[in-house]
Amino acid sequence: MFLWGTATAAYQIEGAVAEDGRGPSVWDTFAHEPGRVRDGHTGDVACDHYHRWAEDVELMAAAGVNAYRFSVAWSRVLPAGRGAVNGRGLDFYDRLVDGLCAKGIAPALTLFHWDLPQALEDEGGWLNRDTSGYFAEYAGIVAERLADRVKLWITLNEPFVHMVYGYGLGTHAPGRTLFLEALPVAHHQLLGHGLAVQALRAAGAGQVLITNNCTPVWAASDSPEDTAAADAYDILHNRLFNDPILTGKYPDMSAFGIGEMPGVRPGDLETIAQPLDGLGINYYNPTRIAAPSTDLLPFDDAGVTGYPTTAFGWPVVPDGLRELLTGLRARYPGLPPIYITENGCSYDGLDDRFRIDYLAGHLDALRRAQDEGVDVRGYFAWSLLDNFEWAEGYHQRFGLVHVDFATQARTPKASYHWFRRMILKRMISEH
Ligand code: GBH
C-alpha cells in the first residue's frame, strides 16, 4: 500500500521543552541566543503538540492519511543524551503511536531531526566520534519500546543540512562556523546511521531508512568551468551522503582540496553501507551552480531564475523531482525503494491555491518518475501544521493546517481539503 502522509519534526511542533523530564537540546540553546532566530522566536511552545497531539491525530485521520512522519526528541528519552532513560519521555511517543495506530495511521519515526541533546554538544556534538555510538544506543532504546508498532524507521533527517547550516555556516544550531572543517560531521552522522541500523535491526524494527535532502544540480552554462563547479556541488550536497550509504565509498572530494575523508577508520564504510529497506528523499528545489568567483569554495550558487517562487523565495520546479529520482536510479543500480519524506512550500493564507498547485505539480512529477521505472512507495507533505521554521521562526508557514500561535487554534487550509480528496481518489483508483 502506497503511503500518503504528512510530516513534522519534534522541535518544530512539540513545545513543552521543560516538561516531564526533557533535557535541553542544541535548538533550545540556539533559539535563546539573541540574534540567532528571526524576531527571537523559539520552540518553547511551538504548536503545543505535546499537549494537543490527540487533536492533531484527529486532523490527520479526517484528512484520510495512512501514514505520519514525526521525529522523537532525543533529549526527552535521554535528557543527557546518554545514560539515564527518562520513561516519561518515551511514554509520550508511546501514546502518540497508539493514537495513530488506533486511527489506522502508520507511524514513520525519525530518530534525529537536528535536536541533539545539549549535553552531547558540550562534548563536541557530531564533531565527536563518540556521538555516533550514543546515537545507536538511543536508537535501540526507542526501538525496544516502539518497534512492535512503528512501520518505518528513519535514522537521520538531512545530514547535509545539519552539517552545512549547523556546523559549517552557523545559521542553525549549534551555530558553528567551521566551513569545510565541518566535514567530520558528515562522517560521524553517517557512522551513527550505520550503527543505529544495527541497533534497530537487533531490536526488531521493521523498515529502516535514512532521509537525505537531494537537489538536481544544474550548471549555469555548458562551459567546462561551470560544469566542473556543478559536479563539485553535486558531490558535496548529494553524493557525500548517498554514495557511502548506497555504494560503500565516499566520492572523490579533491575539488575541495580533500584527499581522504577525515576520521574514517577501517570498517566504518561497511557499517555505513548496510542494506536499507528504503531511501527517504526530501525535495524542495533544484540548484543552479556556476564557476567560483572566490577561492573559498569550488562553486558559486548562481540561483535558479525564471520560475515562480514560494513565500520563502525558493523556486518552484516540479519536474526537478522527476529529474532527481530518475537521476538517482541511473546513478545507483541497487537503489532501494524511495519514500518522499518531505515536499511542500511556504505560503501565507488559508485560501492556498498556490500550495495546491505546488503539491499537485510535484505529484504529477512523481507519477512521471514512476512511469520511468522509479520505485516510489510513499509521499509525505511537509507539513501537517504551520510550525517553527528554524532560523525563520514562525514566519514561514508550511502547513496544510493553519495555526494561530496566539490561541493554538488549528484551521484546515484549502490545501488540506484538496489533499484529502486527492488521497481518496488515488486510493480508489489504485485498488
Ligand atoms: C527541510 O529542510 C527540513 O527537514 C524541515 O525541518 C524544514 O522545516 C523544511 O525543510 C522547510 O524548510 O536557497 O532557494 O536554493 C529543507 C532544506 C535547505 C531546502 C535550503 C531548500 C534552499 C532553497 N532546505 N534549500 S534555495
UniProtKB/TrEMBL annotation:
Asked if the keyword 4Fe-4S belongs to this entry, the reply reads no
Recorded hits in InterPro entries, A to Z, give: GH, GH_1_N_CS, Glyco_hydro_1, Glyco_hydro_1_beta-glucosidase
EC number(s) on file: 3.2.1.21
Q: Does the keyword Hydrolase apply?
A: yes
User: What are the coiled-coil residue ranges?
Assistant: none
Report keywords, A-Z: Carbohydrate metabolism, Cellulose degradation, Glycosidase, Hydrolase, Polysaccharide degradation
Q: Which GO terms describe its cellular component?
A: cytosol
* Superkingdom of source: Bacteria
Which residues take part in binding substrate?
Q12, H113, N157, Y284, W382, E389, W390
Q: Name one GO molecular function term.
A: beta-glucosidase activity
Q: Which reaction does it catalyse?
A: Hydrolysis of terminal, non-reducing beta-D-glucosyl residues with release of beta-D-glucose
SUPFAM superfamilies the UniProt entry points to? (Trans)glycosidases
Which GO biological-process labels does this protein carry? cellulose catabolic process
Query: What does the record give as the active site?
Result: E158 (proton donor), E342 (nucleophile)
Family listed: Belongs to the glycosyl hydrolase 1 family.
Q: What is this protein called?
A: Beta-glucosidase
Q: Which organism is it from?
A: Acrocarpospora phusangensis
What taxonomic ancestry is recorded?
Bacteria, Bacillati, Actinomycetota, Actinomycetes, Streptosporangiales
